[in-house]
Amino acid sequence: MIKRYLHSYIVDDLKEKMVFICGPRQVGKTTLARQIGEECFSGAYEYLNWDNRQDRKNILNSTFPADKKLFIFDEIHKYKNWKNYLKGEYDKHKDKFRVLVTGSARLDVYRKGGDSLLGRYRRYKLHPLSPAELLKVKTSAIPFKEPDFLNNNKEQRELFADLFKFGGFPEIFLKQSEKALRRWHNEKVDRLIKEDIRDIENLRDLSALQVLVELLPSKAGSLFSLNSMREDLNVTHKTISHWVDVLEKFYYHFRVYPAQSNVIKSLRKEPKLYLWDWSEIQDEGAKFENIVASCLLKFCDFLYDSQGYKARLNYLRDKEQREVDFFVSVDNKPWFCVEAKSSFKAVSPALKYFALKLKVPFVYQVVKEEGIDIIKDNIRIISASKFLSAFA
Fold first, then answer.
1. How much is the pTM?
2. What digits encode the pLDDT tens for the residues 14-24?
3. Paired strand residues for 316
4. I need a surface site. Which of 112, 229, 263, 270 has the fewest CB within 10 A?
């Protein structure tokens, strides 16, 4: 069983507050929560799933076993008054037991209204597996210092190839079965729309939403235009905008927005779209860019959730159409930028331009091609299997 990268950080935070673990369906939230209950609370925990009738009854009646030290509430965000409920139970029992909450939709919706849970919780986003996590690398990255990359070896190359093919969701990755992967793709969309989204969102046309989901993999890695999607589906701009927001809230995709800077003539253009499960993407180049995007977003979320650094992932684009795939900053200060390419033929001119213009400390051209790690024009050209070993 894989010990996830957030394990020790969640255990530390449980000593003081509730902890929320959010992330896409089947990314391993429940498994992680139960692991923590078994290993750190000597098995003295209670797992309560809102989708289970008896558990739901116990939750509503506030009936809890007296001998448990940890209570895990799964999918409780489906309860209309979940925010007030958790606040009340936590305030009443925080000296008696710890509270861990998991859910497949964002658990920060309380910010839009209702009683605030501010000061009572820590929130973590659990991401799919990455090369560094599988290599059991505990990130030691310090903002504005160069990340530490492992010396590339056969194990790293094989792990990256498997992740590229099967994606980073634990169950499917561990099975390494193409048949299981195809079945999972089919079942995942049905469960997402007909169970998760239907239970919470008031959407009339679920069949049209399913059509949108089938179109999105072909948009991965490219500029994402709501107007274009609106025309494809023949719906209003408001409708397509809402659908896309809902799918993002339920972790089907994420969007990376262009960085804004006074130094460059940047445009407030459309975001670029990526999937949480890159294994759905057919185009090899788009899939490669997506896996790099996913690992960098995971890294930024980790720095924010566990260390409090305001790390941000953007891309760079200016009025002259120069573009760089990824730009990582902390407190709006440049840290490093990355251009993702399938193979190395030449240094990206846009990468050189933005590196000088924005005075970016570290600049990388990351390639799928193995066995490369050189410096040219002050830019490090490095194989993805080695580059991603630094970002747990």
1. 0.94
2. 999 999 999 99
3. 324
4. 112
